Amino acid sequence: MTNPLVLDNSDAVTFVGVAVDIPLPGLFDYVWSMEEVPMPGDSVLVPWGRKMVWGWVWEVRKTLPEGVQRDKVKAVAARIVEVPRLSERWMSLIGFASRYYHHPIGACIADTLPKSLKTVGKTSSVLPPLKKWAKQNASESGDVVPSVVMDLQSRALTQEQAAALSDIGAMSAFGVFLLHGITGSGKTEVYLQAILSKVQQGRQCLLLLPEINLTPAVEQFFAKRLQGLRVGTLHSGLTDTQRLKNWLAASTHRLDLIISTRLGVFTPLPALGLVIVDEEHDPSYKQMEGLKYSARDIAIMAGRLNDCPVVLGSATPSLETWHKTQSGQYRHLTLKQRAVAGAVLPQVELVDTRHHPSQAGLSKPVVEALKRALEAGEQSIVFLNRRGYAPTLMCESCGWVADCHQCSAHVVWHRKDGLLRCHHCGASKRVPAACPTCGNQDLTPFGCGTQRLEEALQAVLPSARILRIDADSTRGKGAAEAAFETAHHGEVDVLVGTQMVAKGHDFQRVRLVVAVNVDAALFSHQPKSAERLFSQLMQVAGRAGRAGGVGRFMVQTNYPHHPLFVSLLKQDYEGFAAFELDARRAAGFAPFVFQVLVRADHKRLDHAMGFLSVAKDLAQTLLAEMGWDESDTIRLCDPVPLTVVRVAGVERGQLLVESASRSALHAFLNRWLPVLWQEKGSVRWFIDVDPVEI
Ligand code: ADP
Ligand code: ZN
Ligand code: ZN
């Protein structure tokens, strides 16, 4: 009766649940018909429709999940032996990210592994190096304790540094430290010695940096200071092959220290012993596309899964981190003094622009101070967080304003290129010779960007050597490094730029730092905007007087009595944080509530908004079924269009969901999102957990 050639005894068959690089949730079932025993973490090729796609074995099963028909299940086509099997701990981390951010598991893997790994099945170009590394792998173990020594110039730690280091060193299990040190307090030296001691114990360390431009200098610094250290970087500036090579070296313990931007937080490190997140408050740790993770939060989870300490370093911690430190979840280590003998924090001055009106962004007291610094042969920094020549171009006779034809936003005038460029969609067009509505040939810039400020500075300081550093001036490969190199070697009198000049650089000759046009951030509807402004100002102020002598920080504002400035004058982070946390508690903002945004995109706004209304209705029905009272557990806001509603021809709406309980929020999402998957239609939608912008 039964055909002996047909396998119907499911005990003899192995099934695998595969995470496939497809934007659909869940695992997909396949039969394993190869001789070798499958293991979770194996890289495989599987049939998907008529194509072959790449995937990872996630579960090995003896039976199929209920409801799956045996004859519909296809077989795994091949195992890709050249790709190292992913470790259990790494899979736990990806599994956590998938559950926490409610993002399909296959897409999580695809978004976090080096791109070139995915092409293994399709093109052959990555196979030869992979084979070579696999061979190397088999012949020598990476688990050697390197003999790393510190260079001889290493200095005695300050008392505060020594205390912080000893607390970190005493921790061998999981625990989170906030290393809260003012700018110039020598946090890097603490990182360095903590790393040294972990590496000497045969462990790996992961150091995350917020800014890709800082990685080469930091890598050099560590390589020079710690001889024998096997150090490598991971960031998007590497070629695919370099990145793959470093990733493999890291994942086979051939690197002791991995310095990386946010994407490196998912690197599987078999001997991870310490995670450091420098400038933990930096917004660039949040990934805004695909898997929208916070690298800081993932770093903490990686520390937990590897049972090792995590150090969050900052002069102005994020309020989430500060809140957790205050409540005792994180340990507070403080560095209150600058490490270099004699170096102190700069003096802060507010320039009231109601009494000292500014011309092209510069007030008289600021110009005077810049002149004096120039005469004294010092370097100065002028900070303005807006690139381009002017935020837009307008016609004063008819009121015409240059807008992007694809976005609901003004276009930015880039005068040097003769272009009007949209900072939302990237589209650019030539500056018109005359007003397109009334023909007026005298179009005027509105507002001020770094290019216009550079021009204004050159006009008031004709003999000064001025260097602008922003995303536009440093576009080419190596351009940013070259610019900072020039600045460090003193061939520049005035540096003008965006937050790029504020981050991490240890300029030796800077005495005077100026910040202009900061007021808009005081009144933004974005909950984190004041926090960001405060940390940016503290950070840029910190560039002054690092090598000794008293620095000077001048901020132009129309609102010198605003509480943010009152704290800034005293450089009182704790005062600012207390004020801001009170305000957020009162307003019901994070960290006192947990939030999730549902974003819907469509060519037509009514379609996007329609989807969100249906989503909200479904949520209400579901909450009623679950017996939860909407008013106290889950709060559903009304769907609204985004402030910049149209970008690149796509209209965007959002629906905010909040709860004071993180677990209630996620329990609700687990029920709600599968329902939304059914509703999709032609609207593209996604969710953002713990959004940084709402
Ligand atoms: P942070 O990252 O906290 O802003 P850095 O780590 O950049 O500070 O250190 C600031 C400066 O202090 C650097 O020039 C560094 O070489 C110096 N420094 C650090 N530790 C010491 C120390 N113990 N003694 C003297 N100088 C130090
Ligand atoms: Zn006009
Ligand atoms: Zn645009």
Q: Per DSSP, what share of the residues sits in E-state strands of 2 or more residues?
A: 15-25%
Q: What profile does the largest beta sheet have?
A: 7 strands, parallel
Structural class: alpha/beta
- Which ligands, by name, code or SMILES, are bound? adenosine-5'-diphosphate, zinc ion
Q: Tell me the number of helical segments per DSSP (H or I, 4 or more residues long).
A: 18
Number of strands: 30
Choose one word for the global shape: globular
Q: What's the arrangement of strands in the largest beta sheet?
A: 10-11-8-12-13-7-14
Helix content: 25-40%
**What average pLDDT do the residues reach?**
90
Describe the secondary-structure layout.
Layout: E1 14-20, E2 28-32, E3 43-48, E4 51-61, E5 78-79, H1 88-100, H2 105-112, H3 115-118, H4 127-139, E6 149-150, H5 159-169, E7 175-181, H6 187-200, E8 204-208, H7 215-225, E9 226-227, E10 231-234, H8 240-251, E11 257-260, E12 272-278, H9 295-305, E13 309-314, H10 319-326, E14 331-335, E15 347-352, H11 364-375, E16 379-383, E17 392-394, E18 412-414, E19 419-421, E20 428-430, E21 444-446, H12 450-460, E22 466-469, H13 479-488, E23 494-497, E24 510-515, H14 529-541, E25 552-557, H15 563-569, H16 573-587, E26 594-602, H17 605-626, E27 635-636, E28 640-647, E29 650-659, H18 662-679, E30 684-689
Parallel strand pairs: 7-13, 7-14, 8-11, 8-12, 10-11, 12-13, 15-25, 16-23, 16-24, 22-23, 24-25
Antiparallel strand pairs: 1-2, 1-4, 3-4, 3-5, 6-9, 17-21, 18-19, 19-20, 26-29, 26-30, 27-29, 28-29
Helix pairs in contact: 1-9, 5-6, 15-16, 17-18
